[in-house]
Amino acid sequence: MCIHAHFYQPPRENPWIDEVETEESAAPFHDWNERITRECYGSNTASRILKDGKILEIVSNYEKISFNFGPTLLTWLERHKPKEYEKIISADRISAEKRGGHGNAVAQVYNHSIMPLNGKRDKETQIIWGIKDFLYRFGRQPEGIWFAETAIDRESLLLAAKHGIKFTILAPHQAKRIRPIKPDAEWETVENEINTRVPYIYRPDGENEIAIFFYDGALSHSIAFGGGLNDGHELGRSITSAFKTDENKEEETNNPIINLATDGESYGHHHRFGEMALSAILEAIEAEGKAALTNYGEYLEKNRPTVEVDIHENSSWSCAHGVERWKSDCGCSVGAHGGWNQKWREPLRGALNALKEKLDAVFEEGVSQFIKSPWDARNGYIDVLTDRGKTGIYAFIEKYGARPLEAHQVTETMKYFEMQVAAMKMFTSCGWFFNDVSGLETIQILKYAARAIDLAQQVSLIRLEDRFIEDLSKSLSNVKEIGTGADLYESRVRPLRVDPRKIAAHKLIINALRREEETTSRIYSYELELLDRHLEEYLDTMLMVGRLRLQSSSTLETQELVFCLLHFGGHDVNCALHPFLSTDIYERIRDELLDCFRKHSMPDMIHAVEEHFGHKYYTIKALFRDERKKVVEQLLTDRISRFGEAYQSLFEENSKLMDFFADVNVPMPEEFMIAAKYVFEKRLNTLFLNVNGDGDGYAKNMGHIMDEAAKWKIKLSYKKVEKNIDSFLKNLLTKVSAELDDNSAMVVVETLRRIKHRGMNTNLWEMQNMLYPLFRSVYNPTNEFYRLEVSKPGFVELFKALGFALPAA
Question: What is the C-alpha separation between 145 and 161, in angstroms, rounded?
């Protein structure tokens, strides 16, 4: 038995800063990657197996299933969710130890583009990048590869085989005909659905070969769309019952495999608690003992295919018309919108194909002056993508360079290759998958197109944008008010463009508002170094003038800028920049501005700044969305805190009078309610801030504050205190696990009780994960205590509070 899960999300980064910005539709999470990680990718590293609704075990599903992750998704996980990332990587190591060196992880073509619609060069790069990215992460050569949407053709399978791939997984309807592997065997057309219980050999050129596993369509559909995850144990029994074969049919092997394949997001994102259902499926299969869990590599080593297969060219798992879903109005779509069509797909594909052809020509002609073999070097550029920074870039140049390069030539070379990276991201399959050209995924691929166009113009001075926009105008949205792809490009993509000055201004404004004095810092995909800085303050006004160096981590492009920042207090901040020309000019400007500021004439100061820097300047509006939101919230908090003493005085001087009002059932004055709410929330937030986890007074004091607020019918906001309580409880749980501190265990129990009573939220999932190793060490497999020193009341109550299944008394 083998269950395969395809885990993937399209890249969501702003391509000018290489960072995912806030996605409001993913609320309350920052973005969809973060949300789905919590619901699915992370949940599958610590899935619960329940007994009567209580946690019996916490297991990693990745250790028992076959899986692949999109390389761009793993890049995001490695950077932003390192704990979950490492658990995914370690699951492959653990599975390889159990399965004779065959790990559960499978590679994926790099950018999730539809392989049959790529040219041969791009197909090969996608495969090579997928293999090398896998090797970088999992530390071994991949045995199998997942094709995006299982979209395949003969050429793609041949390239995979030539690069050492042993197998892939396809949908059953992609099989065309079969024949036994023996001399003079005749082909037999696959009439309905191919037998999915055996592997097949595919020989794309008669010499090279690759094994193909066709997944069980009915069982896979049941998981993804048929409600199978509503009862994991029942589905597990259904799966094992599928091993009962038709007595009239001779099996090609006496060791059949049932294999399923679905989107990995089925397990927790598309279906809530789907990861737990998957754990239940796996447990049911192992408990019945009718099937052994395996992965494709292990099975293939022990079961050599005896049947050859031929495939339907240009077919996929999610389009009944082959690969038309990604280039035409074939009728395949998501959701129901009466009267909508997908005629926009064809002109979008045409616009991007035309742009790609021009970008390739610019690349091949331009980079040849620096690189020996441009297309071989592009295949090798994955080494830079997995090792961003100077070390990786210079190693790449040394390997593929035609000659030693100057610094500016290295930057130009990198721009050519980054242009190719963006050009391949333009064809991420999700851009065509959904219902309208205005979808988030389509806008995203247009962002990559704009980034590629920018880089092409920087290295070649060739303008490609006008023609591209003209081609996009043929893609009509189903929403009349939206217009065309060209309108979307103008309104949703162009405004996102970022130049180095905006990056520098962003960091300077943040540092000024927070009064930070960093000399070197990283800001998104740039490194900023302050070479000189002078700061003067007068009343609420501040002047900061200096010189900085900004370097891109992807191209090593370096700019030196002179800056002047005026902060008039609050949100009123202006930052102006221009290129550094010479030390003499810079020092003259710096001294004039400082001298002018010391004279305390703001009109003269503003005039002097405009004289040297012009009228273009950056304000808080220029900050990127995430930081802009933080700055605005902090400014608001600072403003409110100025009234804190007044609120405190009003509350303390009148609290007894308000007690009297409450006793005689007289409504509280609104002014006092505002002051009391502020005071109570401040007390709560302060209570759990910067605590070391000692003592048992916190929970009691929390309860007292909440009781007082409830008495006066004040509804408190718990958002900040919940975060502080989480940190407080995690500190306590660390102490509980390390020191077996029964008193700390009781403090956690009491705090959780009060949280629940007040309707507050806390991250029980993480706390359960933290305590699980102790829980397993306390109870042996027969569910009896064997460590008496932790069978104290505090521990028993703590395990109960966190939802663990305890043995009967």
Answer: 10
DSSP codes joined into one string, 702-750: HHHHHHHHHHTT-----HHHHHHHHHHHHHHHHHHHHH--HHHHHHHHH
Alpha-carbon Rg for the chain in angstroms: 31
Cβ pair 235, 228 in contact under 8 A: yes
Tens digit of each residue's pLDDT (9 = 90 or more) over 387-425: 888 999 999 999 999 999 999 999 999 999 999 999 999
Structure tokens at 616: 């273009």
Nearest to 655 by CA among 697, 714, 700, 701: 714
Q: 63 with 104: CB under 8 angstroms?
A: yes
**Identity of residue 347:** P
Long-range contact set of residues 320-326: C-beta below 8 Å, sequence gap at least 24 = 323/114, 323/116, 323/117, 323/149, 323/151, 325/432, 325/433, 326/114, 326/117, 326/149, 326/151, 326/429, 326/432, 326/433
344 contacts: CB under 8 Å, gap ≥ 6? 436, 437, 475, 476, 477, 478, 485
**544-560 pLDDT, tens digit each:** 999 999 999 999 999 99
Phi, psi for residue 489 in degrees, rounded to 5 = -60, -45
Interatomic CA distance for residues 54 and 775, integer angstroms: 13
Q: Report cis status (omega within 30 of 0) of the bond before 374.
A: no
The pair of structure tokens assigned to 808 is 């009967």
pLDDT higher at 239 or 378 = 378
Backbone φ and ψ of 795, nearest 5°:
-70, -40
Chain centroid offset of residue 500 CA: 25
Rounded distance, CA 419 to CA 428, Å?
Answer: 15
Picking from 5, 46, 42, 1, the residue whose alpha carbon sits closest to that of residue 229 is 5
- H helices of 401-535, in order, are 407-425, 430-433, 440-460, 465-472, 485-488, 500-514
Q: Where do we find the tokens 């899935």? A: 47
> What is the rounded distance in angstroms from the CA atom of residue 1 to the CA atom of residue 212?
16
**509, amino acid identity:** I
Interval 166-188 mean pLDDT: 96
Q: Residue 684's pLDDT is what?
A: 84
Quick check: 620 and 571 in contact, CB under 8 A?
Answer: yes
pTM above 0.85? yes
Residue 214 CB neighbour total at 10 angstroms: 26
Please say if the pLDDT value at position 598 is more than 70.
yes
Average of per-residue pLDDT across 52-58: 92
In whole angstroms, give the CA distance from residue 478 to residue 488: 13
Query: For residue 322, what are the CA distances in angstroms to 108, 173, 327, 332?
Result: 20, 10, 11, 11
What ranges make up the beta strands (E) of 92-221?
105-108, 145-146, 167-170, 175-180, 188-189, 200-202, 210-214
* Confidence (pLDDT) at 402: 95
Report yes or no: 566 and 574 within 8 Å, Cβ to Cβ.
yes
Percent of the chain with pLDDT over 90: 65
Return the DSSP state at 753.
H
Contact 113, 427 (CB under 8 A): yes
Cβ atoms of residues 501 and 547 within 8 Å: no
**Is the pLDDT reported for residue 279 higher than 80?**
yes
Those residues with Cβ within 8 angstroms of residue 484's Cβ, 6 or more apart along the chain or in another chain: 437, 472, 473, 474, 475, 476, 477
The CA-atom distances, in angstroms, between 764 and each of 267, 748, 771, 807 are 20, 11, 10, 21
Task: Give CA angle at 269 (265, 271), nearest 5°.
Answer: 100
> What are 520's two structure tokens?
């070197």
d(Cα 553, Cα 562) in Å, to the nearest integer?
21
